[in-house]
DNA sequence: GAAGATTCATAGCATCCGCAATGAAATCGC
DNA sequence: GCGATTTCATTGCGGATGCTATGAATCTTC
């Protein structure tokens, strides 16, 4: 080993919290996301928009951006695609015509009536699988999301 | 309200663990990733590869893929870019010529000598900021990453 | 009430990403 | 030992993503 350069600081990627969180996010969403995609042609972004609409009724792009972790151009594009496949519809807010009103179509509601229970059971299974570690994870995430806001 | 469709199941995106993890990952990596990008022109993928090389010396694309959460085409492309900017170099493994040997160049080592302490203090700051919630988060993540492997 | 600033949604453009295909090398099976 | 299979790395291509600019509507300020 003829290389005696100054040693680099020790740093283990696997102990790096942002990395761990990214991996955890990917692993836990993979299975469900695949179902959305394969069975319904829905991406994660689109799914988030749908969930928010299912929950909140009539909302604008801005509302969604403010509430869920998506940029507004992302919401806008997801909404466009969802409109194209007939899952949501868009009207103009009559009192402020810059604003858009997004709502689920009947077809969209039907889809969500299928999808939401799937997501729910995914969550339940996840909690069961983690056991008491889930509560710790939750406590940690709660604090983290509050701090990094 | 003339719309009495069958109600959708209640589902709160904010209680959905994969979503929470994704948001947490994004929020905690944002600040540091911006530094990498703006000051050194390094993406997150490229940074991961660099960290692994700093840690492990000479490795192949396959090694990296196996060790860190990246697809091999992603590793390959990151390596290509890093080579183009002179941060790593690539040789052929003489005993198995399919394999590639990636190593940091002196320039790459110099960069990492700057970057790693940055990442380290980012982690330290994160832990301090979360206080005892950090240990819970860690316990939860540990179990999760072990389960979803 | 009109000019300028701000808010909202979208589109343009360049880059990134994921999948499947390719090509090169090594290993397997007989 | 040689054709078939597997392993490793890269690339082509279509679609996704992120940033910035644009355009329309509203609000502010005087």
Q: What order do the SSEs of chain A take from the amino end to the carboxyl end, as H and E? A: HHHHEEHH
Structural class of chain A: mainly alpha
Number of strands of chain A: 2
Assembly annotation: homodimer
Give, in spatial order, the strands making up the sheet with the most strands of chain A.
Answer: 1-2
Tertiary shape of chain A:
globular
Low-confidence stretches of chain A: none
Intertermini distance of chain A: 48 Å
How does the major sheet of chain A shape up?
2 strands, antiparallel
Interface with most residues: A-B, 62 and 62 residues
Mean pLDDT of chain A, to the nearest integer, reads 90
> What value does the Rg of chain A take, in angstroms?
20 Å
Explain this structure.
- The structure is a homodimer of 149-residue chains.
- With 149 residues, the first copy, chain A, is mainly α.
- Chain A is 66% helix and 7% strand.
- The first copy, chain A, has helices spanning 17-40, 44-56, 61-67, 72-84, 106-130, 132-147, and strands at residues 88-92, 100-104.
- In chain A, strands 1-2 form a two-stranded antiparallel sheet.
- Chain A is globular, with a radius of gyration of 20 Å.
- The N and C termini of chain A lie far apart (48 Å).
- The model of chain A has no long low-confidence stretch (mean pLDDT 90).
- The structure holds a DNA duplex (30 and 30 nucleotides).
Question: What is the topological layout?
Answer:
The structure is a homodimer of 149-residue chains.
Chain A: H1 17-40, H2 44-56, H3 61-67, H4 72-84, E1 88-92, E2 100-104, H5 106-130, H6 132-147
Chain A binds a DNA duplex (30 and 30 nucleotides) through α4.
